[in-house]
Amino acid sequence: MADTLIRALVAVEGLDAFDVQRALPDDPHFELVGITDGVDDTVRTLQSRQVDVLLVACQGREDDRSLQIIDGAHRTTPELPIIVLSTSSPNGFLRRAFDVGAADMALFPQTKEQLRFVMSKAVARAPRRGSGPRSERDSRLVCVLGPKGGTGKTLTSCNLAVALALAGQKVLIIDLDLQFGDVGLCLGLPPEKTMYDLAVSGGSLDEDKLSDYVMTHDAGVDVLLAPARPDQASAITIELLRDVLVVARSAYDFVIADTPPGFTAEVIATIDASSDLVMVGTLDSLSLKNTKLGLETLELMGYERDRIRMVLNRADTNVGVTHEDVTAIVGRPADVLVPSHRDVVRSVNEGSPVVISRPRSDAAKAFRALAGFYVGAPVDGGRRKLRRNR
Ligand SMILES: Nc1ncnc2c1ncn2[C@@H]1O[C@H](COP(=O)(O)OP(=O)(O)O)[C@@H](O)[C@H]1O
Ligand SMILES: [Mg+2]
Questions:
Q1: Dihedral angle sign, alpha carbons of residues 167, 171, 176, 181
Q2: How far is the C-alpha of 307 from the C-alpha of 76, rounded, in Å?
Q3: Fewer C-beta within 10 Å: the chain N or C terminus?
Q4: 328 Cα distance to chain centroid
Q5: Helical (H) or strand (E) element with 186
Q6: How far apart are CA 151 and CA 130, in angstroms?
Q7: Whose CA is nearest to atom 20 of ligand 1?
Q8: Which atom of ligand 1 is nearest to 182's Cα?
């Protein structure tokens, strides 16, 4: 990775440009495309030059113009990794920086080696870029989102993961509801090994190490469970999470990320790293309004609509909201409709997803249809084509 040529553009905001330039790597595999000042200058340069990574060097203040630079750059070149280099990192600033498109951050000053490393990582992780290193597999990271608790995110994550495994895919599900994750319950897996154990194990992460901390469900789905107790959640840093996502994506055909409600820092980092999103909503006007807001936020983050699937859960509920209303409120129809049924509740209580325990149910059909979008073919629920994960 260290030998790949990296062409970096550096936008400087509120810092001394010479200080920043002196801190940049000076090895032959690093090329400084230019140093820009302000949004317009940065956007123009991005439009006219070949750039692998944008560094935004700034003070990290919440009223910083750097946020506008990140936003403008991200809209111009959504797939270009943007790294924030800031002299401080207050939470509010970081959240907003990630909101508008930053891929990573590092404190400034920073050694040349560290900076080189952060850039190499960001370039390696950049999704589907025309050049530069990429993971050998064309694997997908599907992040399952929903505006509030109880909409069916975990249900969708588990059933999608199992349906993909039924279709012969190698699948990992990651429970990012770090405090109250219940993927283990939904799949009937005891928390013998969790992400917390991985976090406190120390050392660097690779595919072998990840495999030591996943549990395997009978359907052949690997699972990286959320910590068993809420107080352990803080051990999982965004840095670790990013590493886990990169390693997982190179080891599996599909990585499904189940999330807590809302755009937490983990969720934002996962959205950034993902290839696809599933938005889960329910059939009531409050949930639909939030779904619409969620979709708008994703678009602001530069996420294209065609990479987002919409699941409407409890879609048969007779509550006076029609499917036409859904399209009118949300602005698009749902891709998949999951009916409300006691079988779903039973399957959750039994710890066995409906796609396995009740393959003929309408809910199972809906989740297989969702999986079918990703594998590009109908997923057959009758025959079990289980492939054990390595
Ligand atoms: N389609 C459905 N039919 C019946 N019950 C459902 C359905 N979807 C969800 N539920 C119930 O709601 C609970 C919460 O769903 P869950 O997937 O855990 O939501 P989230 O992860 O969004 O908080 C489930 O445990 C289940 O009992
Ligand atoms: Mg959940």
A1: positive
A2: 18
A3: C
A4: 28
A5: helix 183-187
A6: 37
A7: 150
A8: 18
Give start and end residues of each alpha helix (H) in 202-341.
207-213, 238-251, 265-273, 285-300, 323-330
Query: What is the average pLDDT value for the chain, to the nearest integer?
Result: 88
Lookup: tokens for 207? 């595919």
**pLDDT in the model for residue 134:** 37
Instruction: Provide the 10 A C-beta neighbour count for residue 126.
Output: 20
- Which tokens belong to 250? 């190179």
Which residue's CA is the nearest one to ligand 1's atom 27?
345
pLDDT tens for 316-372 read 867 777 888 888 888 888 999 999 999 999 999 999 999 999 999 999 999 999 999
Indicate the SS3 state at residue 323.
Answer: helix
**DSSP secondary structure string, 87-131?**
S---HHHHHHHHHTT--EEEESS--HHHHHHHHHHHHHH-TT-SS
Pocket test for ligand 1, best of 178, 183, 283, 345 (most atoms within 8 A of CB): 345
| C-alpha 313 chain-centroid distance | 21
Measured from the CB, is residue 82 less than 6 Å from ligand 1? no
What confidence tens digit (pLDDT) does each residue in 197-240 have? 999 998 889 999 999 999 999 999 999 999 999 999 999 999 89
Report the residue among 318, 343, 348 best suited for mutation to probe ligand 1: largest number of ligand atoms under 8 A from its CB. 348
Which ligand has its closest atom nearest to the C-alpha of 311?
1
DSSP string, 4-35: S-EEEEEEE-SS-HHHHHHHS--STTEEEEEE
- pLDDT given at position 385: 47
User: How far is the C-alpha of 162 from the C-alpha of 347, rounded, in Å?
Assistant: 13
Task: Read off the amino acid at residue 265.
Answer: A
* Mean of pLDDT values over 371-377: 90
For the whole model, what pTM was predicted?
0.68
Distances (CA, A) of 250 to 82, 158, 210, 247: 22, 20, 11, 5
